[in-house]
Amino acid sequence: MIHIKTKEEIAILREGGRRLATILHTLAGKVAPGVSSLEIDRMAKELAEQGRDKPAFLGYRPEGVKKPYPASICISINDEVVHGIPREKKVFKEGDIVTLDMGLIHKDLVTDSAITIIVGKGDKNAERLVESTRAALRKGIAAAKAGNTVGDIGYAIEQFVKPLGYGQAEGLAGHGVGYHLHEDPYVPNTGQKGDGPVLRVGMVIAIEPMLTEGSGEVTFDRDGYTVRTKDGSRSTQCEHTIAITENGPFILTDLG
Questions:
Q1: How far apart are CA 240 and CA 197, in angstroms?
Q2: In this structure, what are the phi and psi dihedrals at residue 238, rounded to the nearest 5 degrees?
Q3: Cα–Cα distances in Å, from 224 out to 63, 70, 163, 219, 221?
Q4: Omega of the bond prior to 185 within 30 degrees of 0, cis?
Q5: CA distance 84 to 98
């Protein structure tokens, strides 16, 4: 079921999204060679709690997974596409491609966002991959207009990515968000114009293209969460929560 949010709820989501964007921006500034991903996770929890908010991922248990997620943020490095678990021995190195993906519960409503950065100085291919993913997200957001469909979003992302030669992580997609971390509709990064649910004013969705330097085939680690590229190629993820409005898509997870 697709939930339509009220203007009052979207205002709360906007504030929660601004707070989430501030947290991610702060955490990105702390990522450096020699820093443990677990240290970033601890900071994420502290920053959320300072605002009397809650990390949406901590304790979250997706359907089919045996154990709840054990951290406040997902930190994925290089060949880890999404849902990488922070660990003490998972330490950043110069040139690593790092994705910080976090959800925040503010006044009982959820926003979700991810940014990908390069630790220190990266190579030209890494820089191009990261910027291409950011651009793909912008293309998807631009297509998220009332009256368009979910398929229009996927089509816009896919048509942008194809000529660049990148793979797209198979089976991974965006989603509705707001009352819960994952809601309808499913928002794929590929698609056909006119396919899928129609976008309506008041819908809130997370758009999240995930690009790889390889084929796009993925595999799951034994921890049940971490998704990696099957061929070991580097990957990226960029995500915003947006609201569908009368005046076009509105990015909720922006610094504003």
A1: 19
A2: -130, 140
A3: 11, 11, 33, 10, 6
A4: yes
A5: 10
> Global pTM?
0.97
Is there a contact between 242 and 142 (Cβ–Cβ < 8 Å)? no
DSSP 150: H
pLDDT, tens digit, 9 for 90 and up, residues 223-248: 999 999 999 999 999 999 999 999 99
Q: What are phi and psi of 85, to 5 degrees?
A: -90, 125
CA 76 – CA 126 distance, rounded (Å): 15
- The answer to whether 114 and 208 have CB atoms below 8 angstroms apart is yes
**Ramachandran angles phi, psi of 58, nearest 5°:** -60, 120
For the CA atoms of 28, 248, 5, 49, the dihedral, rounded to the nearest 10 degrees, stands at 10
Task: Tell me the backbone φ, ψ of residue 71, rounded to 5 degrees.
Answer: -135, 170
Helix (H, G, I), strand (E, B) or coil at 77: strand
Rounded-to-integer distance, Cα 30 and Cα 5, Å: 34
